Amino acid sequence: MIDLVRGGDEAHLSNRYRLVTRLTDALVTNPRAMTDELRAELATEFSREDLTELVLTVALASAFSRAAIAWGPPAPMPVTEIPTPTV
């Protein structure tokens, strides 16, 4: 699972937060491996609209991240320095 908490201690997190981290982990690493148990837990905790928003947000963030890695860092931008006027 994604280690969003230092030391992996999730005992103090809410059930909703833990479910979202499990969902994110499944979507980012292997969406086909998402279990029926996780689907059922998500369905009891979140509305269909909430789940749609969560899945689309994770997918979009993952896509942008992968695109940024594929494209590499941006080229350096030219810098124009304008001196401060003196009196």
Summarize the structure.
This protein is an all-alpha fold and 87 residues long.
Descriptive overview:
There is one protein chain. By secondary structure, the protein is an all-alpha fold. It has one domain (about 5-70). The protein is about 55% helix and about 0% strand. It has 3 helices and no strands. It has helices spanning about 15-30, 35-45, 50-70. Helix 1 (about 15-30) packs across helix 2 and helix 1 (about 15-30) crosses helix 3 (about 50-70). The chain is elongated, with a radius of gyration of 21 Å.
Topology (SSEs and partners):
Layout: H1 15-29, H2 36-45, H3 48-71
Helix pairs in contact: 1-2, 1-3
C-alpha Rg (nearest Å): 21 Å
**How far is the N terminus from the C terminus?**
62 Å
Task: Please count the helical segments.
Answer: 3
Mean pLDDT: 87
- Helical residues, percent: 55-70%
Biggest sheet overview: none
Given as residue ranges, the uncertain stretches (5+ residues, pLDDT < 50) are none
Tell me the strand percentage band. under 5%
Category from helices, strands and their pairing: mainly alpha
Total number of domains: 1
Q: How many strand units? A: 0
The coarse silhouette is elongated
Quaternary organisation = single chain
H and E order: HHH
Features of this protein?
3 helices, mainly alpha, 87 residues
